Sequence to fold (550 residues):
Amino acid sequence: MQPVVLGLTVVMVLAAVGGVVAKSLRQPAILGYILAGVALSLLGRNVDLVSAMGQLGVTFLLFLVGLELPIGQLKKMGRTAVITGLGQIVFTSISGYFIARLLGFEAVTAIYLGIALTFGSTVMVVKLLSEKRDLQSLYGKIATGYLLVQDFVAIGILTVLAGLRPGEIINWVNLLGVATKGALLVGLAVWASDKILPKMLDFLGKSTEVLFVVSIAWCLGIAAAVSWPGIGFSPEIGGFLAGLALAGAVQNLQIMARVRPLRDFFLTLFFVALGANIGWENISRMAVPAVIFSLFVLIGNPLIVMLILAFQGYGRRVAFLASTAVAQVSEFSLIVIASAARVGYVDRSILGLVGLVGIITMTLSTYLIWYSERIYKVIGNFLKILEFRHKTEEVKGEERLKNHIVLFGHNRTGKVLKPILEKIGKLVVVDFDPKVVEEIGGVYGDIADYELYDELNLNEAAMIVSTVSDVEDNLQLLSSLGKKRPVAIMLAADTNDAVKLYKAKADYVLIPHTVGGEYLGHLLSTHGLDRNFIRSHGQIQKEHMLKNGA
Fold:
């Protein structure tokens, strides 16, 4: 037992050091774990046990994916997410295939390499956008939307691979058989989630400890059942089906909260084992293809996304910022290649190659996403070729605008302000979402675009209202105004940003949480514990939100 304990101790210490170093450099922890695996291979440690335990990590990962299957979010993103996500998958996989063939890889290997180069890391991108406070921006929503579409496709590919036996030849008969079995299993999972599990969980849900143990037993039990030779799927897909069956349960949030630490532990071991499989002896042999594939992921993938978004009517800024989300390979890319290696379709060395591409692209794309705004300011003018919609075409009237009101952003705050501002004066609404512009008849444009300022004749405006929370964009707008300044009302995410805007001569800065707190404080100081008033006031607000589609 001691060698096992010692081995796990070495693994976890290296993983901890790698994770800390990665975080200090603003890199995803996954990168640190992979590099820990590379270090482990240098020490000559056996990683068979780590690899086996790592598979449990993938099983728990897909268990949680099934639990929190974001179908509702996918529906909200709609057409843009689906077109961008599927379009990028098609063009990237085809391009990746031909690049791999030119580098001398066999056809089957080239297919899997093309697929692996397709998927961006949803977890990594969402975390970075959240830290940048851009998750709710238009480009942030587009990026997370098409990445979610990619995750669905990745799960579909994993399901197919999981249903194939090692060495089995891919043909239409086999694929149809796998698809049929997969559909039946999904149907059973949905049936169980409706007929069996609610009553069982209601009975067990009184104890969070028991609920946790039962959830793990359910996950591993289904994983073992679907991997039975008569069914022939991998345990990882069993984990996904187990999670899917629990997705509609009232207790799913409790289950997710308890399972995540367990998933993180075992998934850490998976990435360490992956890093160990790269090995220094393979790096020199894989260096050239790894660099070429990495350049394709870092440059080619964003370019494909930019073109797809441009054809849908989005401006160059939104297209560029959203495209940076796909400039790295994801954890799903690594899992797909690992699954392909398991069934014998690719050599184990290909897993090391994709791991090396992951190290390069994750490292560089982190900085690309973090500094995307600065990069855009440098190359923005060169991207004009990507704008197929002329934003100034929709500025109505032959005479130059004067004494008007300009509202930047038809978001949640903008929707509330629009009818009020229309009563005050002539209103021009500016938004960088083409769908919104078509709906309200506004002006298609971007608050960060200098050229638009002149078209809108901002210095002759009576008032400018920005509901965009990006402080840099708002500061740029304020700095462009001359001596004859219109009334400038800005939105800020927090008090620090508000101070910056006031120093830049904003007339009023709206801080949502501060205003909300002040308003609630006013209600409570005026009416105290008057439940009837509070309830009736809440009812009025509820009816207003429902009426306006909130």
Remarks:
- DSSP finds 24 helices and six strands in the chain.
- The CA atoms of residues 150 and 443 lie 32 Å apart.
- Residues 390-398 have pLDDT under 50 and may be disordered.
- The first helix runs from residue 2 to 24.
